[in-house]
Amino acid sequence: MRLHASDLKRLTAERIAQITNPVDLRIATTWQRERRKHGHGFVYIVRATANEDVKIGWTRNVPARMRELAATNSRPLVLLCVLEAGAIGEDLERALVLRFATCRIKGEWFAPDAALQGWLEILLARAGARFGVVYA
Description:
With 136 residues, the protein is α+β, with helices and mostly antiparallel strands.
């Protein structure tokens, strides 16, 4: 079996066993090792209570990340939502940052415009508004 770029996303141990080309086998095993190393992650959305700015970020450990953010911010933060994003967490976070680039303040912090605010309202309605944890 020859390896194609489209095969990498659905690579399993069974498919790796079918690869006969040594170069393809090395690519496949490296890809699988990298995927395991990066693991699954979460996209989180945080709001600063002082000015309503929103942060869109990615992490493997939400509680630890919230403690880090709380330690570096003088104002309390509210965790609005956490999206379990699996292996595409970093890509999803990057896509959201690019999508709302017009209202970016700095890095991953945004001053919500109508588009971002509308997206957040839909997201929170679908999530059932289970979040709202304050980190100070």
